[in-house]
Amino acid sequence: MIACSDERRTAGGFALRYVFDVEGADIFIVLLSRVEDWKPGSPPTYPSVALLIPSATLYEREIKDMFGLVAEGSPDSRPLVLHEQWPEDAHPLRKDYTLQTKQSRVGDRRYQFLEVEGEGVSEIPVGPVHAGIIEPGHFRFSILGETVVNLETRLYYTHRGVEKLAENLTLDQVVLLSERISGDEAIANSTAYCQSIEKIAGVEPPRRATQVRTVCAEMERVYNHLGTLAALSLDAGFAYGYARLALLKERMMRLNEEVAGSRLLFGVNRIGGVNVDFTHQLARRAVEEMGQVRGDFEKVVKLLRSESSVMDRLSGTGRIQLESAVEMGLLGVAARGSGMDCDTRRDHPYGAYRGMKTDLREGTRRQITERMIKMAKAGGDVLARFEARASEVMSSTDMVKEILEDLDGDLRLRDLVAEDMLEPFGNALGYAESHRGQTLHWVMVGEDGHSVFRYKVRTASFANWPAIELAVLNDIVADFPLINKSLDLSYAGNDL
Amino acid sequence: MTEGEKAEDAPISKASNRGVGHSGSILGNHVETDKMLLEGTRSAPGFRGDVIFQPYVSRLDAELFKRGEEVCASKAIAVGPEGAALDKGKCIMCGMCQQVAPQAFKMVNSFAVPVTTRRDLLVAQMPGPGEGGPSQTVDEIGARLSHRIKKLLGRSLAIREVDAGSCNGCEVEVSALNNPVYDIERFGIHFVASPRHADVLLVTGVASRNLELALRRTFEATPDPKVVVAVGACACSGGIFGDTYATSGGIGKVVPVDVFVPGCPPRPEALLYGLLLAVDRVGPAASA
Q1: How many helices (H) and strands (E) does chain A have?
Q2: Spatial distance between the Cα atoms of A40 and A61, rounded to a whole number of angstroms
Q3: pLDDT of residue A432
Q4: How high is the pLDDT of residue B37?
Q5: Mutate to test the interface with A, among B210, B218, B222 (most CBs of A within 10 A)
Q6: What is the rounded CA–CA span in Å between residue A154 and residue A494?
Q7: With an 8 Å Cβ cutoff, are A161 and B205 in contact?
Q8: Tell me, what's the pLDDT at B81?
Q9: Using only C-alpha atoms, what is the Rg of chain B?
Q10: Which residue of A has its CA nearest to B95?
């Protein structure tokens, strides 16, 4: 991740923080680089790293739009967040740009899509308003017959100004905002945000609070995976599988409602702890309900695996090779489906994941590795991601059971937001594994210690979106919905 | 399953009916069918569906309301010399006001009632008993809906869902309408793939600046008579995202809105209730 912040007033320039996740160790390395204030008339520049690290391209394009810093030598400098109707000199995340600015629309800019030329090649533009009940984005397919030869995605239609808005809210209100970065990732994002504030303040939430957080995080994973698998089944033309799985998802959402007062688990997290608790009765009910869901789920998955019409659609479709996955820096299920062994819950354990095996079902590390090798052999197709999700539903229900049976302590909240606890411009990295993958939140608090100076969010969707352009190559257009669903990308989580 | 077996407390009670026989012919002998019965589909006791003023709080108790105003992230609470006012179109049902001033605000588990004018979502604080919205079940609303659709349209109601910059929470609830529990096709409602086939546009999200044009074009592509339903706090008012450089402060700034469905996100029952209001709007125009 590259996090930029406008520190011209306080540190005489822009700051670029390059965050690297270290493989095999519980460490994040943060490199800080300062870009001095510019000479009037020319934008500030810094050297691009995109040719060394391809996944940096998107960050550099984002920084160019939001801060007006130009990455010199970048292979792609097209606008990203701000579409062509924005004036070129609008940079919303600069400190001298106010939240309520209403920019005029300009009409003379055009976005340059990659054009594929050749006999018989045609283009299909899709979106931003789609045919299904999904989020908005634009897809430009170049096809030869039915085969996709190139796909270009154009996102940021749901850009709501989350990061800028956070700078105008109180620390507690940003928790609510973080839940709404991507509605179905409420727990993961609010956990990551709360953790970064807790880290700045140097406090640990009570053990029971971390347990509740973790249980809710796993419930979130289960209901979303069930939804994704249901949709996969529907897109493969197997309505019965959809109906069964959608029913299970609904049951999970009702359980969410009982636990959190919200079907999407909004309102669980707060800085320093949680707002909800599991009574003995509720914990028993949750374990029982998830046990039933899991029992049914196993039956449905067994059925799906035995339906050749479904398996045939999933198998070999939307391949992402391991090398490409590593190069693009994929996260979560998308990465694990290609055999990349990464999971924030295990690699950077937080909250109640400390000292816990994240894949209880598989047992030893060796068995996990064997499963990964098997997946890598499958070449990261839709089926591999299907199986990865299915096994996570199992392991998550196991984890919920294990934690709920081991709840202890009380929820006594420490008075965290005492203003003197947060040092001026203190900053920290919060992270969590959502059902999509690692979500990273970097927060710097303001001079007064109780406002947000800069809130940088990088959800797993941001890292995983480029994968779809690769996964659809040489598949037919009709398989696109299936591939899209198998990667389960959030538009809102990407666009912010 | 007989009446006697129904469990009152559990929202879902389940009985297994391993009747392989009737489905076996279609799906092969390995398919098991389960019979699920859903009852008491009303909200869970702790569900945050609506916020009301506590009964019998003097409007002079400005201090309490002020506390609510300060903590409210979406600026739904406004305290003026006339007393406190609550904008349910902005409320994200987070319950923070109840946390800081339980004497003044109360979260209730019945959903906030959808309305046809933006003004109706503004609630002024009155000394007196507070009130919550209806807590009808899907089947109750659905039966009325299905009756209205048949009577007014004589065919099914076609809906086009448009995401105009939401967090995807509303999408989760809108797609829940299609699951076997809500199964709204049984009431004569179906989601269509194009605005050209739609009677109703179900719009979620803040109407982000990057989507304004697409929203306007979708509206223009929908044949008359058409009804626009704003779903969720964001579509009603901008919600927590408000009116900023990137948002419009509600879809009402871009297209005319006929029905407002408050909530963050509105639960499926509230969506159905909103559709009930929408049918009444599309019906007369269609038959005229």
Answers
A1: 17, 13
A2: 22
A3: 93
A4: 58
A5: B210
A6: 11
A7: no
A8: 77
A9: 21
A10: A267
- To the nearest 10 degrees (0 to 180), the angle between helices A207-235 and A239-260 is 160
pLDDT at B17: 37
Rg (CA), chain A: 23
**Residues B276/B146, Cβ–Cβ less than 8 Å:** no
**Which among A135, A161, A243 has the least Cβ separation from residue B246?**
A161
CA distance A164 to B151: 49
Q: Residue B172 CB: number of other CB atoms within 10 A?
A: 21
Separation between Cα atoms, residue B123 and residue B113, nearest integer Å: 12
Chain A residue with minimum CA distance to B73: A173
Q: Report the C-alpha dihedral over residues B109, B115, B117, B123, rounded to 10 degrees.
A: -30
Contact indicator for B51, B97 with CB cutoff of 8 Å: yes
Say whether B170 and A183 touch across the interface (CB within 8 A): yes
Contact predicate B44/B109, CB 8 Å: yes
Q: Which helix (H) or strand (E) holds A105?
A: none
> CA A254 to CA A267: how far, in whole Å?
15
**Alpha-carbon distance B40 to A403, whole Å?**
29
- Output the average pLDDT for chain A: 87
The two tokens of residue A1 are: 């991740």
Contact status, residue A405 vs residue A287, Cβ threshold 8 Å: yes
The verdict on a CB contact (< 8 Å) between B167 and A492 is yes
Looking only at the bridges linking them, the beta strands covering B83-87 and A147-154 are: unpaired
Who's near A17: CB < 8 A, 6+ residues apart?
A2, A3, A4, A5, A30, A31, A32, A33, A442
Element holding A483 (H helix, E strand): helix A480-487
Contact of B39 with chain A, judged by CB distance below 8 Å, is answered with no
Region of poorest pLDDT, from A181-195, A306-320, B31-45: B31-45
> Is the minimum CB–CB distance between B125 and chain A shorter than 8 Å?
no
Residue B171 to residue A135, Cβ atoms within 8 A: yes
Whole-model pTM: value is: 0.90
Instruction: Inspect the interface and report whether the beta carbons of B27 and A240 lie closer than 8 Å.
Output: yes
Measured in angstroms, the CA of A132 and the nearest CA of chain B are apart by: 6
- A-chain CB neighbours of B171 within 8 Å are 133-135, 183
| Residue B97 CA, distance from chain mean position | 21
Write the DSSP string, A63-91.
HHHHH--EEET-S-----SS-TTS-TT--
* Beta bridge partners of residue A470, listed in sequence order: none
The residue ranking higher by pLDDT, A9 or B134, is A9
| Helices A207-235 & A280-306 angle (0-180, nearest 10) | 30
- In B34-187 the beta strands, taken as DSSP E runs, fall at 35-38, 50-53, 77-80, 83-87, 105-108, 122-124, 157-163
Residue B199 is given by DSSP the state S
DSSP β-bridge partners for residue A35? A14
Q: Please, how many CA atoms are within 13 Å of residue A200, restricted to the half-sphere of its CB?
A: 32
Condensed to tens digits (0 to 9), the pLDDT of residues A115-139 reads: 888 888 999 998 798 888 889 999 9
Closest CA to B198 of B225, B179, B237: B225
> Is the Cβ pair A85, B213 closer than 8 Å?
yes
Burial B20-55 (b: 16+ CB within 10 A, else e): eeeeeeebeeebbbeebebeebbbbebbbbbbbbbe
Using DSSP's 3-state secondary structure scheme, residue B259 falls into strand
B191 and A CB contact within 8 Å: yes
The answer, yes or no, to whether residue A477 has pLDDT greater than 50, is yes
How far A54 CA lies from chain B's nearest CA (Å)?
26
Q: Averaged over A273-296, what is the pLDDT?
A: 91
Cα(A349)–Cα(A347) distance, rounded to whole angstroms? 6
In this prediction, residue A361 has a pLDDT band, given cuts at 50, 70 and 90, of very low
Q: What is the ipTM of this complex?
A: 0.89
